[in-house]
From TrEMBL:
<dbReference type="GO" id="GO:0000723">
    <property type="term" value="P:telomere maintenance"/>
</dbReference>
<dbReference type="GO" id="GO:0005524">
    <property type="term" value="F:ATP binding"/>
</dbReference>
<dbReference type="GO" id="GO:0006281">
    <property type="term" value="P:DNA repair"/>
</dbReference>
<keyword id="KW-0067">ATP-binding</keyword>
<keyword id="KW-0378">Hydrolase</keyword>
<comment type="similarity">
    <text>Belongs to the helicase family.</text>
</comment>
<keyword id="KW-0234">DNA repair</keyword>
<dbReference type="GO" id="GO:0006310">
    <property type="term" value="P:DNA recombination"/>
</dbReference>
<keyword id="KW-0547">Nucleotide-binding</keyword>
<dbReference type="GO" id="GO:0043139">
    <property type="term" value="F:5'-3' DNA helicase activity"/>
</dbReference>
<dbReference type="InterPro" id="IPR051055">
    <property type="entry name" value="PIF1_helicase"/>
</dbReference>
<keyword id="KW-0347">Helicase</keyword>
<feature type="domain" description="DNA helicase Pif1-like DEAD-box helicase">
    <location>
        <begin position="43"/>
        <end position="196"/>
    </location>
</feature>
<dbReference type="Pfam" id="PF05970">
    <property type="entry name" value="PIF1"/>
</dbReference>
<keyword id="KW-0227">DNA damage</keyword>
<dbReference type="GO" id="GO:0016787">
    <property type="term" value="F:hydrolase activity"/>
</dbReference>
<protein>
    <recommendedName>
        <fullName>ATP-dependent DNA helicase</fullName>
        <ecNumber>5.6.2.3</ecNumber>
    </recommendedName>
</protein>
Amino acid sequence: MLSRLLESLSIHLTTDLTQIVYAQLTDLKLLPHIYPKTAMLELPQDQYRVLSAISMYLGRNDGVRWPFFFITGSAGTGKSYVINMITRMLTQSSHSFILLAPTGVAAQNVGGFTIHSALHIISARGSFFTRAYVDNELRVSLKRITTIIIEKISMVSADLLDFISNMFTNLHNNDLAFGGINVIVVGDLAQLPSINDHLVFRAAVWPFFYPLFLSTLHRQHNDSELYSMLEEIRMDNMSPETWAKLQQRNSEFLVHASAGPLLNTTHIVGFRENAQHINRMICNLLPVPDNKFLISQAVDVVNSVQWDPSSSEFMFKPKTNLPLSVRLQPGARVISAFMVDRDVILEYQRLTHIANTSPHLFS
């Protein structure tokens, strides 16, 4: 299918651009997990202990079982793999579960849904609301759920986690946290936190979660030096040796920079200006046949009225990460994001690969 797509695009793209787009699309492939029949027996000890605990003890509190678990470990220890094993186990036992994540990208990576879209939650004036209280069909559907799994829990605010708990308490007319149903949260509290909100471990329901730890490294198991550096950065305890190594690698890249790594690397920066600088640099690296690119200026619409750019820049643009313009050209990638507070869409994201910049396509 990918080959057919690129073949159809080849009339618009040069050979170099075709190779770039092919590499980009290949990186986006999400292949389903294939589990051998002996998958449980082949697990490392820490993953086996976690899955055994979930299998044996997950359930309504009866003195033996417990409904709330927190699976944690640093990057590369297999948290996403364990999630897939748990969902496979729940599916085989005919349990009704829902897999959630705070962002669209995180949800896509584990094959789940965003918290806001699945639970129909909106936020306004510092509070949360859900349609489940007024939509009987949604209410009935959510009441069937016996297990909630939340990935990237560090990015969920304490207020949101407490709201979800109160929401299911009301749905089930049960005063226990989350209405007494099973909840498994997964993540690393040293990774990205929620934005401008209380950290998740400040939630009133957080003390109920029993921690299960993953410690065996899988992603960088052949590069102990890289793993040590990442752990130092993760714990905000970087040694002079690690800092010197990063500086050295940065200098080497600047001297021997090549387009390949730059075009296929995710860059995380703290300021909009840095992101715009990197985007311009990447666009300049891409081959541009016959100056075939388009500069699209931002258009701001407030209450169905288009604002003058100078007004929007003064009133609210500095408080957002929205650019003043976007450069579109073959080989570039654009993420379109939609946030609709009522009725339709909540946090939908789509990654688009540009193959043509004919003006009529954007009118």
